[in-house]
Structure formats: C-alpha cells, structure tokens
Design a protein that fits this description.
Low-confidence stretches: 127-131
Helix content: 25-40%
Number of strands: 12
Distance between the termini: 35 Å
Structural class: alpha/beta
CATH superfamily of the largest domain: Response regulator
Largest sheet: 5 strands, parallel
Radius of gyration: 18 Å
Oligomer: single chain
Order of helices and strands: EHEHEHEHEHEEEEHEHHEE
Number of helices: 8
CATH class of the largest domain: Alpha Beta
CATH architecture of the largest domain: 3-Layer(aba) Sandwich
Strand order of the largest sheet: 2-1-3-4-5
Mean pLDDT: 85
C-alpha cells in the first residue's frame, strides 16, 4: 500500500506541511496544491491514488473541486477525503452528497489521519475477490474482477466505497446489518468514524441504483438490509 501517491490540497502552509510530513513518513508519495484550479491541474497531469481536499479554499472551494472531479470520466473514481474545520452536520452531509468518501475534521490527529487514509486506499486498491466473477441479484449485477456495477443493461458509476458497500450488502442479503457492522466491513477500520457516514453513503448509493434502490431496505433503529431475492 505504500509508495502510492496522495494529492493534498490546502491553502494553509502550516496544515499543508504537517500533512506532507506525516504522510511522507508513512511511505506515501505526496504532491500538493494550494487552490482548486491547482488541484484539478495536478490530478489531470499525474492522477493520484487518493486526494485529501480542504473545503475552505480561495476562489473555487472544495465542494466545486470535488464536483468537477466526480464528473470527470478519468478522475471520477479517485477516493477523496475532505479536510474541514466546519463541524455543522449540514456541511458534512453536503460533502458526502457531492461525492466525498470520508472526512477529517480540523484539528486532526496523525493516527486518525493514517488510519483513514490506509483504510480507504486498501479498499480502493483491493484485489478482486476470487469467487464468482459475476454476482447477479435481481436487476443488479457486479463484475467483481473489473469492479463494475450494472442495473439491468446500464452500467452505474460507483466510487470504491459505494461499490464495496453494495457488494457487502448483496453478500449478506436477507440479513440486517447495523451501521457499525457496515463501517467495519466497508471502511475496514476501527477509527471513530461517525455512523452517520453510513447513512450518507447508502443514500447516495440508492440514488445511483434508481429503480433498484428499494432493494436496500432501512431497518429502523438498526441499520440496513438488502432484500433477499432469487438470482
């Protein structure tokens, strides 16, 4: 997992230097940008394996940068962690709705940063599972070697975390999964990620599934369940 490239985007020199120091010490190759335009250009020139993106950037803010990344065919699947001093739930929800995979609040701990980065990279770079190349349940099909998802004959674009979340729910179909179970299985970390993160990603996944969204059922007060269907 080391020797992967991370693009860090922040306009505060002190924060930028701290991030570069800790990530470099973990063995990652780190590139930097101090504004949105610079971030997009850096990603286009040399596609990173992960982006840590500050929300409060001059000119083009982090939300717009993220939206442009997600709309780009080549860059849209890059895992993105938002870095923010904003603590309001609405701001975090907005970030996930635009397409963030995770967020880290300022001030942050080096250990938490490392755990979140490592978990997200591990998930996005995971080797394809060996069992059954194609998994089909109702109208949904997963090509597990290519990490592609389909509803009917139409391919849907999923981020690495969205794909993993859908795969886990399908694998455990018919069984209720509480939010902590999903955090452990999908994010692969014991870090204190808020369970609200699961709700946001399920919401985004349902939007992309369209007519098949109803297959993911909400079990009030517990979590979620993928409806059991015959293949």
């Amino acid at each position: 997992m080391k020797d992967l490239q991370i693009l860090v985007v922040d306009d505060e020199p002190d924060i930028l230097s701290v991030l570069v120091y800790h990530l470099s010490r973990e063995g990652y190759q780190v590139k930097t940008a101090v504004n949105g335009q610079g971030a997009l250009k850096a990603a286009e020139v040399d596609r990173p394996d992960l982006i840590i993106l500050d929300l409060m950037l001059p000119g083009m803010d982090g939300y717009e940068v993220l939206a442009r990344l997600r709309s780009d065919e080549r860059l849209g699947s890059i895992p993105v962690i938002l870095l923010t001093a904003l603590v309001e739930e609405e701001e975090r929800v907005k970030g996930f709705e635009v397409g963030a995979d995770d967020y880290i609040a300022k001030p942050f701990s080096a250990r938490e940063l490392g755990l979140r980065v490592e978990a997200l990279l591990r998930r996005s770079k995971a080797d394809p599972v060996s069992a059954n190349r194609r998994l089909t349940i109702g109208p949904i099909a997963l090509d597990r070697e290519a990490h592609r998802a389909f509803v009917g004959d139409e391919e849907i674009e999923l981020t690495p975390l969205e794909y993993r979340l859908l795969e886990i729910l399908i694998q455990r179909r018919g069984r209720v999964q509480d939010r902590r179970q999903l955090l452990q299985a999908v994010w692969d970390t014991n870090a204190a990620i808020e369970t609200r993160t699961v709700d946001m990603h399920v919401g985004r996944l349902r939007m992309k599934l369209g007519a098949a969204a109803s297959l993911i059922e909400t079990v009030r007060g517990v979590g979620y369940r993928f409806r059991a269907l015959d293949k």
